Amino acid sequence: MLSVSPFMSLNRRTLMKAGGGLALLAGVPASAAVLTRPLGADPFTLGVASGDPWPDGFVIWTRLAPRPLDEHGGMPQAAVPVGWEVAEDAGFRRVVKKGQALARPELGHSVHVELFGLQPHRHYWYRFTAPGSDTSPVGMARTAPAAQAAVDRLRIGVAGCQHWEAGFFDAWGALAQEPDLDLVFHYGDYIYEGRGNPKAVRQHAGDEIYSLDDYRRRYAQYKADPHLKAAHQACAFAASFDDHEVDNNWAGDFDQDGTPPEVFLLRRMAAMQAWYENMPVRRAMFPGTQGITAYRRLDYGQLLRTHVLDTRTYRTDQSCGDVARSDACTPEAHASPQMLGHAQEAWLDEGLSRPSTWNLLAQQVIVMPLDVRAAGAGKPTFETDLWDGYRPARARLVESIRKNGLTNVVIATGDHHKHAAGIVPERDEAPDGKAVAVEFLATSISSGGNGHGEAGLAHVLDNNPNLDLYTDRRGYQVFDVTPRLWTTHVKVMDDVEKPDGTVRTLMRYEVAPDAAALHRA
């Protein structure tokens, strides 16, 4: 059943059911407000995407923008009819679903079609058409296995933190070539909000972004990248958001600059609408006055339950003024109480109580304790924006895993611009003690530039016995999941500050479902 946003009311003219798809329409009469003439230029410069696969379907997305950085993307301020097709083959000889949606100016001329009635665990191809016979690139997605199906294998990519100015997105091109991916988890920081830096590797268009038009333009700049477009065409995404989709280190109603909450919420609402417009997510995530309900589950038969979390919207403010390295900010002071909020915490606890071979917590910031003190420093130091700053919330998460008797929890994390692998201990004061979960921190696509590898980071491993890997390189990770074994492939790029970088596998880890322990493969 559809949830109704405070932004609109739904009636018979607002929804169209066509060929097994559900598309949001403008609710306007057939008049000059609907543009049917050719647009005069390719409107599919931002590509296509799919997301959130279920056994009977997934979302397909596009956004019309013939001139991405111009006002309104070069689109007239009118609704535009967009045709769509879904086929069982790349040549579209066996079309199984088709229909039409409206690309509305109120939603940045984006289109979200929620498909249903497809077969479980098989590939489909999709495309869009616009007035004048413009045809989009072809995308591919795979539906999830049927509920309770026995599944032999899944492959999931993990990536995010793609700062345009810090480097090129060749890692996305490499991920697009990974064989037989079922899903890509984008952990967040899809865009960065800062003003253009003329000394950067490549420059943001415009100043720091605040308005809806600002955010739309920034997404258009990023989504026009050919490597990112290729990744979206190749596989369905489970998209989440972190801080830079709005503002660095925002937490709930608070930004990092002390803006009055009622003013900051205006910016957050604009940012969340732009995020929805540009992500292949379901209608249940339509933005309202309270934001977006972004946490949800994606199940893959009996093999995997994926809990996609939101670690930004429901937070209390960071402790210690979000200054982790202040002498006054002892570990005991890292006591902000809410990371997920009451409702999401209860939802996660209930989900962890259901049987599954594996549980994946797909979320944004580091869960395990991470002592970031400088080399030679005697005092442990913990960052307040991570779960380290929300120790009561982490204790409740650990207790939820422990009380459910789980040994099969794997956590996928981003934000930190490093590759890392470690365990979440049952007790903070014993980081090398009994573990409740394994955590894989996936580095950035480009944020931080090329990085320095392991140089100068030996002390991090010395200070954190729960860590096995900590390296400053760019890239992504791939999870290869079977009933018997979870294998994580840590992929690194040789260069992101110049185009045409190449990827290699730095490390492989194996985890068994009966013990929260890391093993080098």
Q: Any low-confidence stretches, pLDDT <50, length ≥5?
A: 1-19, 24-32
Name the beta content range.
25-35%
Overall pLDDT confidence: 93
Oligomerization status of the protein chains:
single chain
Radius of gyration: 22 Å
* Number of helical stretches of at least 4 residues: 7
Task: Report the principal-axis shape.
Answer: globular
Main sheet strand line-up? 13-12-11-21-22-23-24
Derived from helix and strand composition plus strand pairing, the structural class reads: alpha+beta
Say how many strands there are: 24
Give the termini distance in whole angstroms: 45 Å
Largest sheet: 7 strands, mixed
Q: How much helical structure, as a percent, in the residues? A: 10-25%
List keywords for this structure.
seven-stranded mixed β-sheet, 521 residues, alpha+beta, disordered N terminus, 7 helices, 24 strands
Description:
This protein is α+β, with helices and mostly antiparallel strands and 521 residues long. Strand 3 and strand 4 (57-63) form a beta hairpin. Helix 1 (170-176) packs parallel to helix 3. It is 15% helix and 26% strand.
List the helices and strands and how they pair.
Blueprint: E1 15-18, E2 21-24, E3 48-54, E4 57-63, E5 80-87, E6 95-103, E7 110-115, E8 123-130, E9 134-135, E10 139-142, E11 154-159, H1 170-176, E12 183-186, H2 212-223, H3 226-234, E13 237-239, H4 261-278, E14 296-300, E15 304-308, H5 342-352, E16 358-362, H6 391-403, E17 409-413, E18 419-425, E19 435-441, H7 458-463, E20 467-471, E21 475-481, E22 486-493, E23 503-511, E24 519-520
Helix pairs in contact: 1-3, 2-4
